[in-house]
Amino acid sequence: MKIEKLSKGKFIKTSIIVLVVISIFGVIFINRSKAKYRVTQSIQVVSGEVNYKVPDLNVLALYKQKNKGDTSDGNYESITDVPSGNYVVNTDKSYCTIVGNDTKLKDIPMKYKDGMVSISIKKKGTKCYVYLDIDNSTSGTELLGKYTVNSTSDGCPAYEDAPSVTSVKSSGSLFCKGKDDFGDTYYFRGNPTNNWVKIGNFYWRIIRFNGNGSIRLIYSGSGSAQTSGTGTQLSSTSAYHSQDNSANYVKYMNGSTDSTIKGVLDSWYNTNLKSAYGSKMDGSVGFCNDADNGTYSSGTQYFKPYDRIATNKKPTFKCGTPTTNLYTTSGGTKGNQKLTNPIGLITIDEASFAGGVWNTANSGYYLYTGQDYWTMSPLFFDSGGAYVFIVRSAGGFYGYNVHDTTNGVRPVINLKADTLFKEGGTGTSTNPYEVVI
Question: 177 is in which domain, residue-wise?
Fold first, then answer.
């Protein structure tokens, strides 16, 4: 063994090269190997010196599933190349051993992506057996195809920008077609039982498939699927804003200042979703905080959502003045691109399409929880302060002062259209569509 002491400059240059070849934690990448076993050399960086050790042989054997769905031993063939296409590592069958010890190690992370297998090892002399299954997961686009679209004759609102929705939908389930800022949107109305999604330990309901193909979800429990009670929302109630003496306080952001509720949502997102699932979120479709002025009467400035929902009962999925009211992350083609995190709240228009009506009880549709919770839609401003729509505990719609702290928080997110869901999910609360990490 030769230990070579390097100068500072040479050490930095050599260390960079070493780290490019293999990380300190020993991540091995196998791409288009031409032999059944791949041998790599591990180089460790120690205290300013590069120690060239006797080659650390990490031997890897690859096996590919021949027939989709069959995981019996006889349905795998030994391969010399990592295949391209839709494959996943079979974590039940794959394992590693340490040379000289046949004990199977099952806690070594393995992944397949884009014709490459990655294995994170931390011990010398690791020999791994990797089994690749044909991917049976479902994409978000394919998920949409599982639902049958109902027509107006079935009870869906008319397919137009702002159809008349005057009565509650309290029983049965409809899957309807509408229009949003990105194209055709498909939404659930009434009491569906097949719109459940699981992301990690959290349960959600599908509100709709957005016009760009992404999937809009509303929070519905941690650890188990919840349909009513405080378990359908985050652990504590919140004010919408810290002040109420200006019409600006109905906004999700007042200039560059966050609303109170945005801070609650951002904090929860950063703690629970960002690291593991942030790459699956679509921030370009956004969240509508339609603060355009509507009618004005006797000292009260109503906003457009009030005119649509309370007065005319004609909801829309389109967001008034998207350049200011549609909150998106950077890089999208629409919206104000002000968001750092792709998380928001449901709109009162979406709640109307789902089956609710202004100041009318409805305990039968899927957005009923028996709790008061905030929406993202402004109501009015007058001498009494700024008001935003809520979904009331009885299931109807009402308005609360933004400084009120007794209302629940139900996050809304959008999953990208190409998000993959595990095989076998049916969308029920006991067998939800589960996002592949």
Answer: 139-434
CB atoms under 10 Å from CB of 286, counted, come to 27
Q: What is the pTM of this model?
A: 0.77
Residue type, 27: V
98 and 153 both lie in a single domain:
no
Q: What are phi and psi of 113, to 5 degrees?
A: -160, 130
Regarding whether 152 and 76 lie in a shared domain, the answer is: no
Closest CA to 433 of 226, 205, 95, 161: 205
Question: Which pLDDT tens digit goes with each residue over 224-248?
Answer: 999 999 999 999 999 999 999 999 9
Amino acid at 234: L
Among residues 113, 135, 157, the one where a domain terminates is 135
Q: Tokens standing for 155?
A: 């009870």
Are both 180 and 229 inside the same structural domain?
yes
Count CB-CB contacts under 10 A for residue 168.
21
Task: Grade residue 81 by pLDDT with cuts at 50, 70 and 90.
Answer: confident
SS3 category, 217? strand
DSSP label at residue 268 = H
The 3-state DSSP composition of the chain as helix, strand, coil percent (nearest 5) reads 15, 35, 50
> Are 216 and 416 contacting, i.e. CB atoms less than 8 angstroms apart?
no
Same domain (yes/no): 15, 90: yes
Shared domain check, 375 and 278: yes
Q: Residue 212 — φ and ψ, nearest 5°?
A: -95, 5
pLDDT at position 12 is: 42
- 18 contacts 48 by C-beta, under 8 angstroms: no
Tokens 């100041």 belong to 359
User: What pLDDT score was predicted for residue 215?
Assistant: 98
Nearest to 265 by CA among 169, 363, 340, 160: 340
| Residue 214 and residue 417 in contact, taking contact as beta carbons nearer than 8 Å | yes
Residue 77 CA to residue 79 CA, distance in Å, equals: 6
Tokens of 357: 């009506």
